[in-house]
Design goal:
Layout (H helix, E strand, L loop, with lengths): L20 E12 L2 E12 L3 E5 L6 H8 L7 E6 L2 E2 L5 H10 L1 E5 L10 H11 L4 H14 L15 H13 L5 E5 L7 H18 L2 E6 L2 H4 L4 E6 L2 E6 L3
Parallel strand pairs: 3-8, 3-9, 6-7, 7-8
Antiparallel strand pairs: 1-2, 1-4, 4-5, 9-10
Helix pairs in contact: 3-4, 3-5, 5-6
């Protein structure tokens, strides 16, 4: 049976409207050996919304994010992206979803060390079939928007932590992703740089109607979100705020 692929790239269909749920995580459970990382965890994210997931170390925050992004398959439950069940996609389709619809920012950036800033930002576009010249032109535009255009030819090892995270943010947004998953994106940065990176990421995401799911232990980072969802012992707790 041919697998139906319901997700078009941006520009091919109308984007979801503000208030529409773009991502729903329903009753997820996940164990790693004897350890239960998720226990009936649920989460909803509206189009263009910033949602912070907070909790102590080991509460299941990162596992929830990785399941929501289709990186890890839950043992039970559903992840619905625009109404389609991500957990039932084939490996190839799941990978395509992450390339075309999702963006990622991790604590240490995870940039490719052999590539310069332009090449790192252009990489998602190249993987999606864009020509090299076009991809680099778009990448330079995003670097400029994050005020790091002068770093275009530098490799990650030549950058500060804050500069590398800005490159990672540009890479996450360069495809105009509908959802960006950020796992402790400021965990390795000093306070002032953390605020600057979060403010820039949120501003650009709002401009493009991109939702953000950010995992953090820092209440000051969570303050940038429209809503805060708590986690403890693999369960999501009451959501706060009204967006």
């Amino acid at each position: 049976m041919t697998e139906v692929w319901p997700f078009a790239q941006r520009g091919e269909t109308d984007d979801p409207r503000p208030g529409d749920e773009v991502l729903e995580v329903l009753h997820l459970s996940k164990s790693f050996g004897p350890r239960r990382a998720l226990d009936d965890a649920s989460l909803s994210v509206r189009h263009g919304e910033i949602v912070a997931v907070m909790g102590p170390s080991g509460s299941g925050k990162s596992t929830l994010l990785h399941c929501a992004a289709g990186v890890v398959r839950p043992d039970s439950g559903q992840v619905l992206y625009r109404g389609a069940d991500v957990t039932r996609l084939s490996r190839d389709r799941s990978s395509e979803l992450r390339r075309t619809q999702f963006g990622f920012v991790f604590q240490f950036g995870q940039l490719v060390p052999e590539l310069d800033a332009v090449e790192n930002v252009a990489l998602p576009l190249l993987l999606n079939g864009s020509g090299r010249r076009e991809a680099k032109t778009i990448a330079r535009t995003w670097l400029d928007r994050l005020s790091i255009g002068d770093l275009a030819g530098q490799r990650p090892g030549q950058m500060s932590g804050g500069q590398a995270q800005r490159v990672a943010v540009a890479r996450a947004l360069v495809t105009c992703a509908r959802v960006v998953f950020a796992d402790e994106p400021t965990g390795s940065l000093d306070t002032a740089t953390s605020f600057a990176v979060m403010a820039e990421m949120v501003e650009l995401a709002r401009e493009h109607g991109t939702a953000i799911v950010v995992v953090t232990h820092d209440a000051q980072v969570a303050a940038y979100a429209d809503r805060v969802v708590g986690m403890r012992d693999g369960r999501t707790e009451q959501e706060r705020g009204d967006g």
